[in-house]
Amino acid sequence: MNDGNTINRRQALQHLSQVVSGGIAGTLLIDYALAGHYEPEWKHAIDRGLKWVASTQSRLGRWTAGNYPTAMTALAGTALLCSGSTTRQGSYAKQIRGAVDYLMTRVRNNGLIGDPLSDNRYTYGHGFSMLFLSQILGEEEDFERREELVQVLSKAVEFSGRAQTKSGGWGYVSAKDGNDFDEGSTTITQVQGLRGCRNAGIPVPKDIIERAKQYIYSCKNSDGGISYSSRNRGSSRPAITAAALASLYNAGDYDSHHVPEMMKYCKKNLYGLGSSRSFGHWHYTYLYYSQVVYRQGGSEWEIFRNKLYTRVVNEQSQDGSWQGNIGPIYVTAINLIILQLNQAYLPIFQR
Fold first, then answer.
1. What pTM was estimated for this model as a whole?
2. In the predicted model, is pLDDT for residue 207 greater than 60?
3. Residues 6+ apart with CB under 8 A from 62
């Protein structure tokens, strides 16, 4: 997995850390972030999974499951980026370029990345695309493509702002198209995508993020968990609570008094991994909860990581993919992102 591109990226990060942090101390911090422990079987699973993803990309540059080509392409592209490849270098540069090219064809005049005519949950694709393309922007060397990405992401941020509901969340479609309905999972997708844009230098109005944070807090129950929607305040949802915590971290809200209660709820319901039958969308849940525990670091992350990675690796199919709800590209992309967190290549997933 350590190709020449990996070495070049590490050297570049070391140099940057020396400039920013002052010499060897900064270098050691960067090395620690990049040098996460990997068992041979984890590396093997990642390699097989990445090869399967690359081999299943269409000639148009997309991946799909159901009617979600935008979301699946963005997720698959993000999984490939996590390997250390960029649009210019690395084993999966060709596939990443193809994904970028495809998503650029999905951009609408109003800033939406997706197709509202064929996708009845287009905010997922929009949010995942903002996340993926914002990580691309930081690595893109071609000036014209960088300018194009800046324009696309700037308009995408504006669309997300207009699509936000009065309560501060997002629904499967924009507030206008969805009668102002909102729910937790699409809200989290938007927040993380917007954070990726902000990290890449795209202006994101503070009010959008603040309203989203307050939306999450308004959905919190007495047990520390988050409800499905501001309109459907019922039982807490482990998946949405984990995703909400990850998005709050992305929003820089580490010290809110709500966070410890949400952490306690997640640890009680998710730290033992559970089963896919105990609650829906297991892989989606651990895409976000793994980010939460990873940011905690230390022995807690190591213990949890070992259990999680062992389970994920053991569930891999012979062809390198993973099976599950929605489709194999969805589950495979998510599992690859989870398995590659320790490589710390993408700013959005770094501690």
1. 0.87
2. yes
3. 69, 72, 73, 98, 99, 102
